[in-house]
Predict the 3D structure of the following.
Amino acid sequence: MSTKLNILTTCLRYPPAPGGAEVLIEQLSQGLCSRGHNLKVYTSDLFRHNLPAEWLEKSQTSRDPSYLKRLSAFYFGAFPYPFFRGLIRKALKEKNIDLVHSHNFYYYSADSGRMISRLKRLPFVFSPYFYIESREAKKWQAYRKTFGRFTMAADCVIALSPFEKNLITKYYKPKRIEIIPPGINKGIREKVDFNIYEKYGCQDKNIILSVGRICYGKGIDITIKALSRISKKHPDTVLAITGTDFGDKAEFVKLAKKLGVAEKILWLGEIKEPILSSAYQYASIFCLPTNYEAFGIVFAEAMANSLPIVATNFSAVPGVVPKDKAGFLVPRQNVKAIAGALERLIENPDLAAAMGEFGRKEALKYDWDKMTEKVEEIYYELV
């Protein structure tokens, strides 16, 4: 269809705030704009929403696209539910809106978006990135039965994976639910001619790479402990870690010193393409024993760069990483199993190469343009 839509989007955060959901929202927004649609994206000015929160600096938002409206976020006490100043009032003033698409279950961006759609009598699409892990307290149980039920009564709920769909339908009965996986930035697949690890004198080492938020939820502590188990037998193995510090890096540095592997860890900081592409392409293994993923874009990125995967056999990960084909998936919090999987790949380069090649082919299906097209189809069906 050639009709151009006016779409109102609400989301918790937007790049340069880090995270897989944030990347997805940015890619979807850019894709819809490139197709000629008119967007208004309301988001917060938060860099990190976990308390203690961290706000974006003005210099970080100077290149925001014209469709993006950042509103001041504030909290009531220690409750981790940031409000956006003036969101509902401003959104209700928007004219000629055809549809509301909100993101982020458990947050004001979702609940306010649903309220706006009801008040304006507009179709409502919801991308929840739904999870229960770490949200089992009574206050969150109450949320799921009240605001959560209100927001999940969307005209269409979009899940990232079969796992997320199954989890949603365990708690709710959406009118309609569709599975639309995210994509991979094209630049991640493009070959680069420089090796980031030369900077650290590690270009000839076995490089285990971890990409993601630096926090306990991503299993960084498990990976460090696994490294300590294999370092004597494989002294040429190092661990490279890149991502945003979500408050736990200092503890991981202490842990590495305690285990005697501090000098075998490369803290790469926050890196972007093409440096991130180099980190993937010149690594040997990708390891991220995460506690939970609604999808896990970084696994698809690693596979796209022919890296064998070591991860947990939990949440959405098995749906992205075919077990024993693209890598090894083991139980959560199992240091011994992670170490064993890493050793097996280090000691069997042919197996590692075969898994990497399988993963590369598997990752071809993850494409931002395909994702945008499928979301656009849903919009047209609802308007």
The radius of gyration is 21 Å. Residues 196 and 359 are 23 Å apart (CA to CA). The longest helix spans residues 20-34. The chain has two domains: 6-182+367-382, 186-365.
